[in-house]
Amino acid sequence: MTVLKVVNTNNGMAGAHRVVKAEIADGKLQLQVHMYLTAEDAANNQNLRWQEYPVLPLAALDVQDPWGSLERGLVAQVDGVLEGGTFVADVAADDLGTARALKWAEIKAIRDQLESGGFELAAVGRFDSDAESRARIVGASMAAKIARDAGQPYSINWTLANNTTVELDADAVINVGFALLAHVDGIHQRSRALYAEIQAAEDAQAVASISWTAPAPEPTPEQDEPVVA
């Protein structure tokens, strides 16, 4: 079994992870986790990106399903490196249906990570784009549009991803909304194109060759209208 979750390591992004070693020490489970770029890499033990050494309570071990129980424990571990990951079975060489499902799960994990990973706006800085931040940006851009249309002054102090603050007027906030829209739309366009490639692939090997190679969306030029929720 493999756990899918996009993790940024010192050697680049890793999306598939396997528990390769477990020891009991000081009443706890000391694990070794290998981290690979793709699920195919994990299944074939190739292109190792990184290793982590998480710790689980001994109660997490199920002797009837030792490796599975450790993976479940890591996915359920609050604030753990693999918290919220997805389990997938290894793909047989000729199993096209499973290969497609596995690759799509991998692509969705990357898509969601990128969508929530922040975006740049030229001459302003980098903005957070997790779900809460996206909602705040949409709300602020709509409020800015209403104020501008009414001829009312509008400004807001916004905390950027690096925890510095900038003061934004109505036009600037509207531009942030447009940049968010371009960020999300570009990522989803890429994922839809990859989904079409996955469905068109004629064998598991062709599916395995598909990867998210497009760069994250670039900063967008200034716009005149806000994002509409």
User: What is the number of domains?
Assistant: 2
Total count of helical runs of at least 4 residues? 6
Q: Average pLDDT, to the nearest integer?
A: 88
Shape: globular
Hey, roughly how much beta strand do the residues contain? 25-35%
Salient structural properties:
single chain; alpha+beta; globular; two-stranded antiparallel ribbon; 2 domains; 6-stranded antiparallel sheet; 229 residues
Folded structure, characterized:
With 229 residues, the protein is an alpha+beta fold. It has two domains: 2-90, no CATH class; 95-229, no CATH class. It is 40% helix and 25% strand. The chain has six helices and ten strands. The chain has helices at 39-44, 66-76, 96-115, 131-149, 170-200, 204-208, and strands at residues 2-9, 12-25, 28-36, 48-52, 55-57, 86-88, 119-121, 125-127, 155-159, 165-169. The strands form three sheets. Strands 1, 2, 3, 4, 5 and 6 form a six-stranded antiparallel sheet that branches. A hairpin with a 3-residue loop joins strand 7 and strand 8 (125-127). Helix 3 (96-115) packs antiparallel against helix 5 (170-200) and helix 4 (131-149) crosses helix 5. It is globular and about 70 Å long. The two termini are 40 Å apart. The mean pLDDT is 88.
